[in-house]
Design brief:
Layout (H helix, E strand, L loop, with lengths): L10 H5 L19 H33 L6 H14 L12 H7 L3 H19 L4 H27 L3 E2 L10 E4 L2 E4 L7
Antiparallel strand pairs: 1-2, 2-3
Length: 191
């Protein structure tokens, strides 16, 4: 069953000060006349859409394995859920998990930032454990596709005559420059 650890926030949880996606951590915007309702609806939609995406992806992989004659063990189900959380920017803050809202006030989207570093580490751990190796292979394919798509985009931009930041020590690494305009494949995250 689906007792894996995807943080499926209920509508009630989204309305409380409890666990929130990192889009709007502050409640200030929700208090604005007229716009407050729009912000609340947008946040609810964002949170529910991400949870639905995580769950539907988990379910599709689970069902594909099942139709292929393989039943995922509880450990594989949990590993898959953990991977989907990390891959979708919902990294674990570990011992600092309960301080997530405070950290989000200091740092922008700490769970997202942590997930970028956690993805390759989690993939290696999944591959190293015989009980989760198949999930590790799936995570490896996901990472390879992401990196390939990013590098392909940068190569196409460079072939089109745009300046591409290839130096990992530069703040422009992985970004495309066209005159005074700078674009990164990761939005404004620069990771």
């Amino acid at each position: 069953g689906f007792e894996a650890s995807i943080p499926a926030q209920s509508l009630r949880a989204l309305q409380k000060a409890g666990p929130k996606e990192e889009l709007f951590q502050s409640r200030l915007a929700e208090r604005l006349p007229v716009l407050g309702g729009v912000v609340t609806a947008a946040e609810r939609s964002y949170g529910l859409t991400l949870n639905a995406l995580r769950f539907e992806t988990w379910k599709a992989i689970y069902e594909a394995a099942r139709s292929g004659g393989k039943m995922l063990t509880q450990k594989e189900q949990q590993a898959l859920a953990k991977w989907l959380n990390v891959a979708s920017g919902r990294g674990s803050l570990g011992a600092f998990g309960s301080a997530g809202n405070v950290l989000n006030g200091i740092l922008f989207a700490p769970r997202f930032a942590v997930s970028r570093f956690e993805a390759p580490i989690l993939t290696a751990r999944l591959l190293a454990d015989p009980a989760t190796r198949e999930i590790g292979k799936l995570a490896t394919k996901d990472l390879a596709k992401t990196v390939s798509a990013g590098v392909s985009l940068l190569l196409v931009a460079e072939a089109a005559g745009l300046k591409v930041g290839w130096d990992p020590a530069s703040s422009d690494f992985g970004k495309i420059r066209a005159g005074d305009k700078l674009a990164g494949r990761h939005g404004n995250k620069g990771v």
